[in-house]
Design goal:
The chain is α/β, with parallel strands linked by helices and 356 residues long. It contains ten helices and 14 strands.
Amino acid sequence: MQVIRGLHNLRDEHRGCVATIGNFDGVHRGHQAILEQCREQARRLGLPVAVVVFEPQPREFFADDQAPPRLTRLRDKVRLLGEAGVERVLCLPFNEALRSLTAEAFIRRVLIQGLGVRHLVVGDDFRFGCDRRGDFHLLTEVGQASGFDVEHTRTFTVDDERVSSSRIRTLLASGNFAAAACLLGRAYRLGGRVVADQKLGRTIGVPTANLPQPVCSLALHGVYAVVTELPDGSRLPGVANIGWRPTVGSVRPVLEVHLFDFDGDLYGARLVVMPCAKLRGEVKFDDFAALKRQIGLDQQRARDYFFQHPDAGACSSRYPETFGNDDSLPLASAPLAREAVTLDSSAGMSADHDDG
């Protein structure tokens, strides 16, 4: 698959395609249905499938930190699009220059001169251009005059409700990982490369792999029972904190994972982490001793959770099988218990940093 960054990198060989436009955040089953429409037309016309995405996403450009969190980073989105049969991804920087384009200019420069689109698949509520005048009707009108067809996307529903990124975010925030996986077509996952950090976990016998996360992709906050996929494809159960680590402090969000019964060097490795159940929200403790006690409780709750799902398997003498694929993951449909931290009142916690 080709990834083309910016209009200036388009070449003559990139012209001629069946295309669609959107954020494709999560590349969920609704997106997959759109891509199947594109593939149908691409097979008919003998052309490649191209997807136009924006970086940052338009709502991030306009709303900044008020924009909804992403479900997927750009690199993961591109990988998922490739797995769905997309052959070209045109990533346009969403900046003042692009925002200022009129709808007609966008069609001319991106779709006609840039990609040479022969067939376009977009939602009938799609709007674009600095004046918001660009819509399905305008695309159809210009397409008829310029030699490309326009087809509206088919609505994809689960339980009589349209599949959308916002619906998936709501399910994740509520701890319903089973339903989120149903809409995504796979288990929700985060990832990144392990970096060196403060190594405080090692001082209490709980070494962690620390994966910095961009703010825009932090759809979860709190402590979770997780399954982590290592570079060799093996999967291990564990517990993870996702967020700002308010007790010890962090300059950026971190995915901090402790793998059960694992002793190895993961620095520099790229990991994939799949949350299975929410244990609690992220909390600021008054001291490290209180945090240490809670970490012990979190570990035990996570171990108990995996032990109570033997059919899902895990990877230690206590858990005899392995998490072979997403279908074997024990995805919860709700948090395991109330969001309150299970410490005695003398722990002196502050809940003003609770993100649960």
